[in-house]
Write a structure and sequence with these properties.
Number of helices: 11
Helix content: over 70%
Distance between the termini: 45 Å
Largest sheet: none
Shape: globular
Number of strands: 0
Radius of gyration: 21 Å
Structural class: mainly alpha
Order of helices and strands: HHHHHHHHHHH
Strand content: under 5%
């Protein structure tokens, strides 16, 4: 008579990490709501980040830029484009979170924990899909955020997200909402989704299985904070290029970028390598509340929806 062999630590970790997949629609709903809440909380910092990335002459730091916006546009100036931000997150992050879960299941997550490269591949694909779907909202948001920096006579003056999208479609064509900045947006989203979603999964597993944390709010907070730093570090250069591309006005004699690589190389040549990290403090400061609030909301929604 032989006693059964006790499971190894690795087997226990795999059993703890392996979970029954939830219905696909839940991931889309959880991602949409979680990111909309996170995006609304982080919007003032996102606005400051965009304005800092557009600087070419005056050099404001994050605090100075925030004070300048409040002085010149009133405190409500920090909320310019918040409706576009929420609308964008409902589409963009809904697709990102939903497709990330779908792709992980297709990669075999229900049979065992995925490797970090496998998670990264799922994140790259889902991020690019989300960015393509959400590009009209992102274009509207960037323009609405940047409007206050332009001279009065050059401002676009969009009233809200619906006015912005309809005006762009009417004056520039429907397809312009995907021609303008969609490639750098997809590049950025692919990179940032690796940091946010794959980074969060990996950091959460590390805290659970290596640091002895329990699956609860402190773990969710710690994992999301680490994911925020990874996402900011990886995405800032592409984010700056995307902002410059979406906001350029060649008819007014400004710099004309032909694509992401051209924007990056032009900035390095004319403004120096550190120009790619313009607004990094604001990017990280924005990523922190956005990622933390988003993932804590998503985790709570998973608990609430587990019996649906």
């Amino acid at each position: 008579f032989l006693l059964p062999t006790p499971p190894s630590v690795v087997q226990l970790e795999m059993a703890a990490t392996t979970r029954q997949p939830q219905a696909a629609w839940k991931g889309f709903v959880q991602g949409s709501i979680g990111a909309a809440v996170g995006g609304a909380c982080a919007h003032p910092l996102d606005l400051i980040k965009v304005r800092m990335q557009l600087q070419t002459e005056t050099k404001f730091n994050m605090l100075q830029m925030g004070v300048n916006i409040v002085r010149s546009e009133s405190p409500l100036g920090l909320l310019k484009g918040v409706d576009a931000s929420i609308a964008r997150q409902l589409v963009y992050s809904g697709v990102r979170f939903g497709m990330y879960d779908v792709l992980k299941q297709l990669a075999g997550e229900d049979k065992g924990p995925l490797s970090t490269p496998a998670k990264a591949a799922c994140a790259i694909s889902s991020g690019a899909m989300g960015a393509f779907a959400g590009n009209p909202g992102d274009l509207a948001m960037v323009r609405m955020q940047a409007d206050g920096k332009l001279p009065v006579e050059q401002r676009r003056g969009y009233k809200n997200i619906f006015d912005a999208v309809s005006t762009i479609a009417r004056t520039e064509g429907v397809l312009s909402m995907w021609r303008t900045g969609v490639v750098p947006n997809m590049n950025r989203a692919a990179i940032i989704t690796v940091g946010q979603l794959a980074g969060y999964d990996t950091c959460k597993e590390m805290l659970l299985h290596r640091a002895g944390f329990k699956d609860g709010l402190p773990t969710h907070f710690g994992a999301s904070l680490m994911a925020a730093f990874l996402a900011a570090l990886m995405s800032n250069p592409v984010d700056v290029a995307k902002t410059r591309l979406m906001n350029q006005k060649p008819e007014l004699g400004g710099p004309v970028y032909t694509g992401t690589l051209n924007a990056v190389t032009t900035m390095v040549r004319t403004e120096g390598p550190l120009s790619l990290y313009k607004g990094f403090a604001a990017t990280f400061a924005r990523q922190c509340p956005f990622v933390v609030v988003t993932f804590i909301t998503v985790e709570q929604l998973k608990n609430l929806m587990k019996d649906l």
